[in-house]
């Protein structure tokens, strides 16, 4: 039995496996510029965040109607459940679909057809987090939030993703203020490729409760002290960091030092179809490459539920936390 865990950093569009991409392309009459799944996988040689994003946005062309979004989410939930994910807080990137003419209602309702039945179908509770693309304008983000207003009963929070460097958090001050006024939770990618100052800015200017990645905080001891003191969770994505070259090799990942420093770290998969593994695969990889003890792995699983937005269902959170404490380690953490 896999270790029970919550996944808090997962882009639903990043779960599009080549096989599903080709199936949806055929169903929708879309031509992909790759002969087959093998040739597509060959394209997965990323040098940095931008080279990944180029492919990530290109493949979204196959997502057109509600059924596509439902199929995508169900495929993820099934794989995640098999790797011990009991709760998933799922990002989606509406601007990447709106600009292709896919309406907000198709995106949200399509995803909801899977998420709304996930507890019964997959045993996974879910929340939905709408991300703004930081390489688009602040006005576009504001318009996106406005378009999401009819669907806010489905959306728990907002996030910020895409090309980080040159697009600091302060650019999105206004839309985060508006999101807070609507009662939405706030997270943001910061300190993946961008400097530690972006993490500080995300906390001070955007009021985020959780930092996605946050890896580069280790360069600023004062920031680390603040994150520890204020119990700000970081959603780390170890296999993503290797593929996008934020770290050279997994054995050099600062996760053990970050845990030793008292940071509230979680382990997540980011874009599992592209980066070589789902949540459990990430747990297994850090256990093997970094020699994490069972106590450390249990801490990571506990942190994932503590850092989740289950504040609206403390009973469920307590049940998951009890599952983590009762877990008996065998050879499987995935
Ligand atoms: N970083 C920034 N933007 C993203 C990512 C990521 O890891 N995945 C999908 N969009
Ligand atoms: Zn991400």
Structural descriptors:
single chain, 334 residues, alpha/beta, TIM Barrel, globular, binds hypoxanthine, binds zinc ion
Describe the structure.
- 48% of the residues lie in helices and 14% in strands.
- 49% of the residues are buried.
- The chain contains 17 helices and eight strands.
- By secondary structure, the protein is α/β, with parallel strands linked by helices.
- It is globular and about 50 Å long.
- It has a single domain (5-322), classed as Metal-dependent hydrolases (TIM Barrel, Alpha-Beta Barrel).
- An eight-stranded parallel beta sheet has the order 1-2-3-4-5-6-7-8.
- The protein binds hypoxanthine (HPA) and zinc ion (ZN).
- Zinc ion is lined by residues 9, 11, 161, 189, 212, 270.
Our count of helices gives 17
Distance between the termini: 8 Å
Order of helices and strands: EHHHHEHHHEHEHEHEHEHHEHHHH
In total, the number of strands is 8
What's the CATH class label?
Answer: Alpha Beta
Strand line-up in the sheet with most strands = 1-2-3-4-5-6-7-8
Structural class: alpha/beta
- CATH superfamily, please? Metal-dependent hydrolases
The largest pleated sheet is described as: 8 strands, parallel
- CATH-defined fold name: TIM Barrel
**Total tally of structural domains:** 1
Structure summarized in a few sentences:
Helices cover 48% and strands 14% of the residues.
Describe the SSE topology:
Blueprint lengths: L4 E7 L6 H11 L8 H6 L6 H11 L6 H17 L2 E8 L1 H5 L5 H12 L2 H5 L2 E9 L4 H11 L8 E5 L11 H9 L3 E6 L5 H9 L5 E4 L7 H9 L3 E4 L1 H6 L11 H6 L3 E4 L4 H4 L3 H12 L3 H13 L7 H13 L8
Parallel strand pairs: 1-2, 2-3, 3-4, 4-5, 5-6, 6-7, 7-8
The chain binds hypoxanthine (HPA) and zinc ion.
């Amino acid at each position: 039995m896999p270790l029970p865990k919550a996944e808090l950093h997962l882009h639903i569009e990043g779960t599009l496996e080549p096989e599903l991409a080709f199936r949806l392309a055929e169903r929708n009459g879309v031509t992909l510029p790759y002969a087959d799944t093998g040739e597509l996988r060959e394209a997965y040689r990323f040098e940095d965040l931008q080279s990944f994003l180029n492919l990530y946005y290109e493949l979204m062309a196959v997502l057109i109607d509600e059924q596509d979004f439902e199929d995508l989410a169900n495929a993820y939930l099934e794989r995640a459940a098999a790797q011990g994910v009991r709760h998933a807080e799922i990002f989606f990137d509406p601007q990447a679909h709106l600009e292709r003419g896919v309406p907000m209602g198709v995106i949200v309702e399509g995803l909801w057809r899977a998420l709304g039945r996930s507890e019964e179908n997959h045993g996974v509770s879910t929340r939905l987090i709408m991300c703004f693309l930081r390489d688009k304008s602040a006005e576009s983000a504001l318009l996106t939030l406005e378009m999401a207003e009819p669907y806010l009963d489905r959306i728990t929070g907002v996030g910020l993703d895409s090309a980080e460097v040159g697009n600091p958090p302060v650019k999105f001050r206004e839309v985060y203020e508006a999101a807070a006024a609507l009662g939405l939770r706030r997270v943001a990618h910061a300190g993946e490729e961008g400097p530690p100052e972006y993490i500080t800015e995300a906390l001070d200017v955007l009021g985020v409760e959780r930092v996605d990645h946050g890896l580069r905080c280790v360069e600023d001891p004062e920031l680390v002290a603040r994150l520890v003191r204020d119990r700000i969770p970081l959603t780390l994505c170890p296999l993503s960091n290797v593929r996008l070259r934020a770290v050279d090799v997994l054995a050099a990942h600062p996760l053990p030092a970050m845990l030793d420093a008292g940071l509230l770290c979680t382990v997540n998969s980011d874009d599992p179809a592209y980066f070589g593994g789902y949540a459990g695969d990430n747990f297994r990889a850090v256990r093997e490459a970094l020699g994490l003890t069972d106590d450390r792995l249990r801490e990571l699983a506990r942190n994932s539920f503590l850092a989740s937005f289950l504040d609206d269902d403390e009973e469920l959170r307590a049940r998951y936390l009890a599952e983590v404490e009762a877990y008996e380690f065998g050879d499987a953490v995935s």
